[in-house]
Design goal:
The protein is of the alpha/beta class. It is built from 3 helices and 8 strands; from the N terminus they run H-E-E-E-E-H-E-E-E-E-H. A 5-stranded mixed β-sheet has the order 5-2-6-7-8, with helices on one face. A hairpin with a 2-residue loop joins strand 6 and strand 7. The longest helix is centred in the last third of the chain and has 25 residues. The chain is elongated and about 50 Å long.
Length: 187
């Protein structure tokens, strides 16, 4: 009996190891921006990027129509996308403003001055050779009632493979990052 159980466990282990592997994806790391700005606002706090529920899954999805989604075979996010987007935006703003004082908000400890950035993505999906990114973002002064909000929308060409879709998502989010940085610069 014990011999059969060991044989059964070994077979399960072998079958588990031989199952098809999934490709894991993350958006690329931030490249050094061509144009940099001087920081004039003190610290910048970036709230966690809010994403639609279909992006909260580990599987990468695409759209068949405006109301029907499907999962890409063997393609998964290597991290929770909301956390990855938040960390990437923080890294981008650190490089763009040449300062390390860009943090995840709410931060710990006293930060006497600065800005808070909020981003909500409402659509981020590939459909029929196009990648759509719609979002709204807001900058708030932590020292005053000053606030600035803006809508963002872009369409980027894409292919149907996971590689192509993730690459297009990377480019589209890069456009959003640049718009947010420009908004902070003008704030």
């Amino acid at each position: 009996m014990q011999k059969n159980m060991i044989l059964y466990l070994v077979m399960l282990l072998i079958l588990g190891c031989s199952s098809s592997s999934k490709e894991l994806y993350v958006l690329s790391t931030v490249k050094d921006p061509a144009t940099k700005y001087e920081s004039k606002h003190g610290s910048i706090g970036v709230e966690g990027v809010v994403i639609p529920q279909y992006l909260a899954r580990r599987e990468i999805s695409a759209a068949k129509s405006s109301s029907q989604l499907f999962l890409l075979n063997d393609a998964m996010w290597g991290e929770h996308l909301d956390e990855g987007l938040t960390n990437r935006l923080i890294s981008y703003l650190q490089k763009k403003f040449q300062q390390p004082a860009v943090y995840s908000y709410p931060w710990h400890g006293n930060q006497p001055n600065g800005l808070r950035v909020k981003v909500q993505i409402t659509r981020f999906i590939a459909q029929e050779k196009r990648l759509y990114l719609d979002a709204n973002w807001e900058i708030n002064s932590l020292n005053s009632d000053k606030r600035f909000a803006k809508l963002f929308s872009t369409v980027v060409a894409t292919g149907s493979t996971a590689d192509a879709i993730v690459s297009s998502m990377d480019r589209a989010f890069g456009e959003l990052e640049e718009q947010i940085a420009e908004g902070i610069h003008q704030f």
